[in-house]
Design goal:
Number of domains: 1
Number of helices: 4
Order of helices and strands: EHEEHEEEHEEEEH
Distance between the termini: 29 Å
Radius of gyration: 18 Å
Length: 204
């Protein structure tokens, strides 16, 4: 049995062979592909399986609920990144994805506060994993292409995204997921929905 929580669409069909990133030149479209020019950094099995803190991709829902309070400090800060929500997703009893939502930001404060959140997360992740395999400069508010930054750590992907809620407020999300397990969960979810739809159509 799987449990699928609210999740944004993830970028899965990208292959990389290296680690150093060429940042877009002036005038390069935000959605332009990023060129990788050096051999990819090697990561230990522990780094590849770690999600955050003591939480791994083998963590059960029960154990996750015990550990989630240890993410960040008492004021819901990871470094200087303040977060509001933590959204886990489970499949076959194990965690496969985690999304951490940052503070909502008014349009007038977009450039200052969203830039700050992106920079804070980028600095922490770069210190741990090296340069991202996808790097986009800070986008204009109405011209956002996600992910803004992305790291590939074996089967683990880490995205920094910029989202917008229904009230028009923007916020940064930190998204950590296991690529293969995420795909398995999505396929299982679709198969179940197709089965339900096929059963329901007999009503008509």
């Amino acid at each position: 049995m799987y449990k699928l929580y609210l999740m944004p669409v993830l970028l899965l069909s990208i292959s990389f062979g290296c680690s150093e990133v060429q940042k877009p030149e002036t005038g390069t479209p935000l959605d332009a592909p990023i060129t990788v020019i050096e051999e990819k950094k090697e990561f230990s099995p522990e780094e590849q399986n770690k999600v955050i803190g003591n939480i791994t991709f083998d963590t059960s829902e029960e154990d996750f609920n015990k550990e989630v309070a240890n993410i960040g400090d008492a004021n819901n800060n990871i470094g200087n990144f303040h977060f509001l929500n933590i959204l886990p997703s489970f499949h076959q009893g194990s965690l496969y994805s985690l999304v951490i939502d940052g503070s909502r930001v008014k349009p007038v404060d977009y450039e200052r506060r969203i830039s700050s959140d992106v920079r804070e997360l980028t600095d922490m992740l770069t210190a741990q994993y090296g340069e991202p395999v996808i790097y986009r400069e800070m986008p204009e508010r109405h011209d956002i292409t996600n992910p803004v930054k992305m790291w590939e750590v074996g089967p683990k992907y880490i995205n920094i995204n910029i989202e917008e809620d229904r009230q028009g407020y923007n916020f940064v999300t930190l998204e950590i997921y296991h690529g293969a397990r995420h795909l398995e969960a999505v396929n299982a979810y679709r198969a179940e929905n197709d089965s339900i739809s096929n059963t329901a159509k007999d009503i008509f």
